[in-house]
Amino acid sequence: MRLIIAVDGPAAAGKGTLAKSLAAALRLPHLDTGLLYRAVARQMILAGLDPAQDAGETIAQRLQPDDLTRSDLRVPEIDRGASAVATQPAVRAALLRRQRDFATASGAVIDGRDIGTVVFPDADLKLFVTASAPVRALRRFQQLHGDAPPDRDALARLTEEIETRDRKDAERPVSPLRRAEDALLVETDHLDAGAVLDHVLGLVRARF
Ligand code: C5P
After folding, report:
1. Does the ipTM exceed 0.85?
2. Which overall architecture, per CATH, does domain 4-198 show?
3. Cytidylate kinase domain: which residues (predicted)?
4. Does residue 114's CB lie within 6 angstroms of at least one atom of ligand 1?
5. Cβ 112 under 6 angstroms from ligand 1
């Protein structure tokens, strides 16, 4: 089946984990579109450019597949740089075609912020994945530090960073983070990754 499944939501809500496992279960390709914005920010920083001030369009147009697999794309500097560069309309336009080309031939599970609203408004299924900010901060802490006991200051800092990034993503004028009207809400506060996947696979099987 050439399904296009759009998975949107705020930072660290579990959408990446869900999109990856859903794609594997349905044998569809997976695209994490956050990596595109992260790769543009990384290249800009390496070139001495400021993602919040300088134009990223040319770098976005020239992005290569290898640029999406760098190991340093998930560091805090790139979190901030990606969300800054994501406010530039020309960068978003340059990345739009790439996202559409990826999914159109074979179907795909695509995760991001504006997939169900802008990139694939006619997706076969749209999911909007959320969790409360403290739960998301704890998950991000565990991603960064494994099983280390969470410390209160670090969690407070991560909660603030996550809330700042969400605010920025939701308030920008171009392609803001928002739930498409026809997106199904998936709240993951009380569900682990396996339970979220089972729930969504149930939704997919009921529809297709
Ligand atoms: O999903 P991830 O946290 O890796 O995304 C990094 C940043 O890229 C987000 O905070 C957001 O500003 C931007 N982004 C976006 N649109 C997407 C995916 C990511 O604006 N479809």
Report:
1. yes
2. 3-Layer(aba) Sandwich (3.40)
3. 5-204
4. yes
5. yes
